[in-house]
């Protein structure tokens, strides 16, 4: 079995209104079952999801958090506006976003944006993935999947990996339920987080710096779904999320 | 930029004493800078790291934990023998292993092993990776890296991904420190967990079930290190691990 991953070359600096699907189709030959992996920053920029701190007025809670940790109240307000819950204030500002994604600073990106501006995550990353995916399919008559990605830290280990924040026609989890292992025993580990594994693979080619390539195509996997998909399928429910419970315990003690 | 990943075909069922390096060299044409990704299960098996519960005598602590949660005391004892600390007993038995790796059940694998036997993680996975890597380099005169992998769950999201548990000639983290973004701003996200991203990419091809391919080669990345490497470079120190603190808070409250 074989998989290829390659960057789409000549993607220009993206600005509001740019048509990412057309740019991809102009610069890569798309095949059936390709998985198109796109950095959320360019999706957000094309959707005009950039903002300036000077346009934000900090409320009481933002001011409180900011003063406790010597942070910028307008920035804290921007994070709160995009969050369901603050899981930790300091030393990292860890929140659950309105979309249910747990990340630092609500995914607001201070890099790769023109001076003075900050980039949001796309407002509804599944819809963003769908819009781009459908446009690529219209342009090419090929069946594709799309993964919009960000980078995230993780528990117990330093470093960030690419992760999926929005999906089109690929489920985040591949179920091995009921399958047998080499010796006919029922498999114990049964859910593979394929969308995050693909996002991580693509991130190896994207780079983080000024040589950044925000679009990567993954070819050779047969993971296109038959039905519609959402990144939210992989978010743990509050009740079963033991790490969140631990962080709340720490926060409230 | 382009990356290829492919499975090494015809890897037989591995048993104690099998020479994994020779099996890889016989079944794949290795090139310079290839990253050879190997499932820890076959490494452990080749090293004879399998055991039976009936050979274990459970101590007081194992019996206590087992009776609280209706679990098997001998199995709990096997986990305790391999652990520095139990971070959570139930509903998942989450521990830090003697190697500093946080995982469920100390990584003891109940699948893909002959009936009655359980498979350990390799005792020192960095050494296992080094042994295989050096033997491949001797056989082929090519310079390679090796990643021994397992699968792990993660915080906030369901599903497991492939992760690195042992490394040869590849650092787990790629530092982007001091690099500039597209607009000349200092990058904020600075540490990419490349070994885990590669392990995840390989896991997409390995499969979990009876079609499993335990060896994958990743080609096209220039990540071979100049100096010796260890997976432990990416484990957070106890002092800075906030999620561990949260889990202890929950455990001890």
From TrEMBL, chains A, B:
<protein>
    <recommendedName>
        <fullName>Coenzyme F420:L-glutamate ligase</fullName>
        <ecNumber>6.3.2.31</ecNumber>
        <ecNumber>6.3.2.34</ecNumber>
    </recommendedName>
</protein>
<comment type="subunit">
    <text>Homodimer.</text>
</comment>
<keyword id="KW-0479">Metal-binding</keyword>
<feature type="binding site">
    <location>
        <position position="109"/>
    </location>
    <ligand>
        <name>a divalent metal cation 1</name>
    </ligand>
</feature>
<feature type="domain" description="Coenzyme F420:L-glutamate ligase-like">
    <location>
        <begin position="11"/>
        <end position="220"/>
    </location>
</feature>
<comment type="function">
    <text>Catalyzes the GTP-dependent successive addition of two or more gamma-linked L-glutamates to the L-lactyl phosphodiester of 7,8-didemethyl-8-hydroxy-5-deazariboflavin (F420-0) to form coenzyme F420-0-glutamyl-glutamate (F420-2) or polyglutamated F420 derivatives.</text>
</comment>
<feature type="binding site">
    <location>
        <position position="151"/>
    </location>
    <ligand>
        <name>a divalent metal cation 2</name>
    </ligand>
</feature>
<keyword id="KW-0460">Magnesium</keyword>
<dbReference type="InterPro" id="IPR023659">
    <property type="entry name" value="F420_ligase_CofE_arc"/>
</dbReference>
<comment type="pathway">
    <text>Cofactor biosynthesis; coenzyme F420 biosynthesis.</text>
</comment>
<dbReference type="Pfam" id="PF01996">
    <property type="entry name" value="F420_ligase"/>
</dbReference>
<dbReference type="InterPro" id="IPR008225">
    <property type="entry name" value="F420-0_g-glutamyl_ligase"/>
</dbReference>
<dbReference type="GO" id="GO:0052645">
    <property type="term" value="P:F420-0 metabolic process"/>
</dbReference>
<dbReference type="GO" id="GO:0052619">
    <property type="term" value="F:coenzyme F420-1:gamma-L-glutamate ligase activity"/>
</dbReference>
<comment type="similarity">
    <text>Belongs to the CofE family.</text>
</comment>
<feature type="binding site">
    <location>
        <position position="112"/>
    </location>
    <ligand>
        <name>GTP</name>
    </ligand>
</feature>
<dbReference type="GO" id="GO:0052618">
    <property type="term" value="F:coenzyme F420-0:L-glutamate ligase activity"/>
</dbReference>
<keyword id="KW-0547">Nucleotide-binding</keyword>
<feature type="binding site">
    <location>
        <position position="45"/>
    </location>
    <ligand>
        <name>GTP</name>
    </ligand>
</feature>
<feature type="binding site">
    <location>
        <begin position="11"/>
        <end position="14"/>
    </location>
    <ligand>
        <name>GTP</name>
    </ligand>
</feature>
<dbReference type="InterPro" id="IPR002847">
    <property type="entry name" value="F420-0_gamma-glut_ligase-dom"/>
</dbReference>
<keyword id="KW-0342">GTP-binding</keyword>
<feature type="binding site">
    <location>
        <position position="150"/>
    </location>
    <ligand>
        <name>a divalent metal cation 1</name>
    </ligand>
</feature>
<feature type="binding site">
    <location>
        <begin position="206"/>
        <end position="213"/>
    </location>
    <ligand>
        <name>GTP</name>
    </ligand>
</feature>
<keyword id="KW-0630">Potassium</keyword>
<keyword id="KW-0464">Manganese</keyword>
<feature type="binding site">
    <location>
        <position position="208"/>
    </location>
    <ligand>
        <name>a divalent metal cation 2</name>
    </ligand>
</feature>
<dbReference type="GO" id="GO:0005525">
    <property type="term" value="F:GTP binding"/>
</dbReference>
<dbReference type="GO" id="GO:0046872">
    <property type="term" value="F:metal ion binding"/>
</dbReference>
<feature type="binding site">
    <location>
        <begin position="40"/>
        <end position="41"/>
    </location>
    <ligand>
        <name>GTP</name>
    </ligand>
</feature>
<keyword id="KW-0436">Ligase</keyword>
